[in-house]
Amino acid sequence: MPVHKHDVVIVGSGLAGLRTAVEAVGSADVALISKVFPTRSHSGAAQGGIAAAIGNEEPDSWEWHMFDTVKGGDYLTDQDAAEVLARDGPRAVYELEHMGVPFNRTPEGRIAQRAFGGHTRDYGKAAVKRACYAADRTGRVILDTLYGQAVRKGIRVYAELSIVDLIFRDGRAAGLVAYDLATGELHLFHCRLLLLATGGFGKVYKTTSNCFANTGDGVYLAYRAGLPLEDMEFVQFHPTGIHGLGVLISEAARGEGGILRNRDGERFMERYAPTIKDLAARDVVSRAIMQEIQEGRGIDGQDIVHLDLTHLGKDRLAERLSDISSFVRIYLGIDPASEPIPVHPTCHYMMGGIPTDVDGRVLGKDLQPVTGLFAAGECACVSVHGANRLGCNSLLDLVVFGRRAGKKMLAQLPNVPWPQLPRDAGDAVRERIERLKGRSSGERVHGLRRELQQVMMERCAVFRREADLRQALEDIRALQARCRDGLYLNYRGERFNTDLLEALELESLLGLAETIVLSALKRTESRGAHWREDFPDRDDQRWLKHTLVALEDGEPAIFYRPVTVTRFEPKPRVY
Ligand SMILES: Cc1cc2nc3c(=O)[nH]c(=O)nc-3n(C[C@H](O)[C@H](O)[C@H](O)COP(=O)(O)OP(=O)(O)OC[C@H]3O[C@@H](n4cnc5c(N)ncnc54)[C@H](O)[C@@H]3O)c2cc1C
């Protein structure tokens, strides 16, 4: 097995991985490993913008941004982390500008900003323009810019290598095993410091805005290695996915003035969020859409509502929302300038993940940093997003906490000796692959995956109930057993064996689905994106705490940790 030695190994080349790498490279030898070519990471699909209280279009302040983030997270947000995020926002955006990101401009030439869900002024009084953007391809331009910086700084990139095991030695991270899609070979990576930036796992659900690579491998491998996962029950459904496909229509469409309407043409958000209406937090809008549909006010009796952009005019759509307009034309054959778009909530973002401190250090079961291991981006839970993330706060999270993790790694490096690699590193993966390839009949990956995605969609999506969650848990465990004992590969060759890769990913999806459902089952209250029909109230007395789930003797066990409250005492959440 080829062995690669680097001081720092970063897994994932979305914005979190790239931003960390660019910071950590200094005197260290840094390598990036990515399952897809770096610029194909899901960050490149981010449309709407990056939030920062630079106040270019309207008065703004980092305190208002922090307040909105905490309220948006339904007070589950750790407020020390939210303060870091909001305070650092303006610096982070100007830094991106200086690196070369082509943001849209105001007529005076300053960075333009637009409104986004849950971002307000004066602590909730009115919507504020806080999202810095580049048309509706903000993630694309930031990803390309940061990739350019990574190339310029000589960071070694291993593309289309998928990590399949993490290696620990004497309680510290020592390296990993990766599978090379092009050759079918396993590679061993040996490092002093390791950072996971493997993104989200929307592929657990049938309808999602996420790309195919978002299967949560890094998060699952950390969990399998015995580390805890935090707040897994909080899964964000974005209100406006293209009906039937889940492809995202950015909140920027509502930020630019788009309106949601029901069967009667009514702007129904006026009833659910009288102050900021269509720009309420995403969990609120997604529930409102589902309620309209359940009460029979969907369009033509179907499970859809309309997103109306017709009043914005052709020119504004072309200038500010051009990619979205073309998605709608391509996928639905509709011109958004003349017809409303049929939409339905789509699984979008994972608030939970690998617990870290504000410097990206991964926390173990004892809530102390695990030596040598870091995480950043959507795979991590800092936790700035609490029970529901605000739009445009993810891109900010990636660059703010990616940079901090990079700085911390660089500072630690001189004192970190090379760990030993165990002699049997890679053996377990090799055996797993041989077992999979050895089977000559059984069930195919895509059938099992589809069943899982259907179970999660039906039983653990926007609305949840105990009976459904119990059934989901049973179904997932049955699927896990079928996956373990009977998965069969159609193609058993070495080169570009995507069948094998998907089989390995399926294990991640199943393991993570189990943690989502179990955490959701235990939390008998409604908060942010976790809405229990059988417990419709938020219960701060019992539940103002983070869920942690970790394997104990091979079984998932749940425990809790307190939320950090600094400036804003929990209040009822009204928009
Ligand atoms: C359609 C869409 C639009 C969005 N719009 C916005 C927006 O406007 N504003 C905003 O703030 N947020 C937005 N978001 C959310 C935001 O884009 C994501 O949360 C963010 O990009 C995640 O970045 P990341 O760096 O953590 O991971 P990603 O960009 O998802 O990258 C993950 C990386 O991990 C690698 N990886 C995964 N598994 C493995 C493995 N096994 N081995 C090796 N590498 C692996 C992948 O190759 C990839 O490079 C949007 C999300 C979507 C889906």
From TrEMBL:
InterPro entries to which the protein is assigned, alphabetical: FAD-dep_OxRdtase_2_FAD-bd, FAD/NAD-bd_sf, FRD_SDH_FAD_BS, Fum_R/Succ_DH_flav-like_C_sf, Fum_Rdtase/Succ_DH_flav-like_C, SdhA/FrdA/AprA, Succ_DH/fumarate_Rdtase_cat_sf, Succ_DH_flav_su_fwd
Residues the record lists as binding FAD: 12-17, 34-49, 217, 378, 394-395
Coiled-coil region: none
EC number per UniProt: 1.3.5.1
Cofactor: FAD
Cofactor notes: Flavinylated by SdhE, about 5% flavinylation occurs in the absence of SdhE.
Protein name per UniProt: Succinate dehydrogenase flavoprotein subunit
Organism name: Desulfoglaeba alkanexedens ALDC
